[in-house]
Design a protein that fits this description.
The chain has 119 residues and is of the alpha+beta class. 18% of the residues lie in helices and 39% in strands. The termini are far apart. Bound molecules: copper (II) ion.
Length: 119
């Protein structure tokens, strides 16, 4: 009984470790239709279109910290620091065009100044 419990806990820990290592530390990231990766200090894809309501998840595939921050005047506001390997999810309930950036690397015109278009 004790052994079974130990094995169970070890399996959960192994899964958690495996999940963490699939993102971050420069290991890269492949986005699904509702995900945006942060790789090589680039939002990928830079312009993502989804159908509302949609929860968009940003995944930091880099080994450095980024932020996912709504632009000033955006109809939806969020400002999340995402460490290497971390994720952030935000639900867009209304159609619109939402520009956002990384406060560390995302000056206008850079590859860390992206757009979420919600149809
Ligand atoms: Cu950044």
């Amino acid at each position: 009984m004790r052994l079974a419990m130990f094995v169970g806990i070890a399996a959960v820990l192994a899964l958690a470790t495996c999940k963490d290592s699939s993102y971050g530390t420069g290991g890269g990231c492949t986005p699904t239709a509702t995900q945006v990766c942060m790789v090589s200090s680039t939002f990928s894809p830079l312009n993502r279109t989804v159908t509302h309501p949609a929860t968009v998840q940003w995944i930091n595939g880099d080994g450095i910290t980024h932020t996912v921050t709504s632009d000033p005047g955006s109809a939806e506001t969020y400002d999340q620091t995402v460490v290497g390997g971390g994720t952030f999810s935000f639900t867009f309930n209304n159609a619109g065009t939402y520009t956002y950036h990384c406060t560390i690397h995302g000056a206008p015109g850079t590859r860390m100044h992206g757009t979420i278009t919600v149809n």
